[in-house]
């Protein structure tokens, strides 16, 4: 299992290695986290197909993997992000050919009727130096009580953690949905055990 920055490092290991390689996180994607996220959504909602997942914030590794994972299980995915921070264009094209994906800078449009709202930090690991410029770019890209009104009344909220209260999510929303978010964190363990079992056969 490799957790790193450059996706190419994972690709190289997989190409030249003789054993299965697990992507534990790169700047490009975070598939292990999304397995835990989907497990949590299924736990709470009973199924996945037909649900709407809305991601708010940076079109980063989480956005990329949520798009791929969500579309693969038959969810509708909507991403609200600033124009300069869109998810990977190749992934966007793939998703639009294989399911329903919207990418918009309009938070309310993305959150409309959503079953799940998801967000992640504005500055990911390795982007600490961009903190000030990102705070400007992402101002308002926040899951707050007002945005929750656009989603379904029983919408759940997920966050891959650590959360920055008052930035991408308000304290109020985080606390109201802490049960789901901490179950999501716990499910990292169970989902990753499943990956190992599958690869070990
Ligand atoms: N986008 C975040 C995800 C952490 C789980 C990061 O890469 O730091």
Describe this structure in words.
The chain is of the alpha/beta class and 201 residues long. The protein contains nine helices and seven strands, in the order βαβαβαβαβαβααβαα. The protein has helices at 7-16, 31-45, 61-72, 89-98, 107-111, 131-137, 145-148, 171-176, 178-200; strands spanning 2-3, 23-25, 52-56, 76-80, 101-104, 116-119, 156-159. The strands form two sheets. A five-stranded parallel sheet has the order 5-4-3-6-7. A two-stranded parallel ribbon has the order 1-2. Strand 4, helix 4 (89-98) and strand 5 form a beta-alpha-beta unit. The chain starts with a strand and ends with a helix. The mean pLDDT is 98. The structure holds norvaline (NVA).
SS elements, strand count: 7
- Rg calc: 16 Å
Net shape: globular
Helicity, in percent?
40-55%
Strand order of the largest sheet: 5-4-3-6-7
Low-pLDDT stretches: none
Largest sheet: 5 strands, parallel
Mean pLDDT: 98
Number of helices: 9
Ligand types: norvaline
Q: Classify the beta-strand content into a percent band.
A: 5-15%
Order of helices and strands: EHEHEHEHEHEHHEHH
Briefly note the structural class of the backbone.
alpha/beta
Distance between the termini: 16 Å
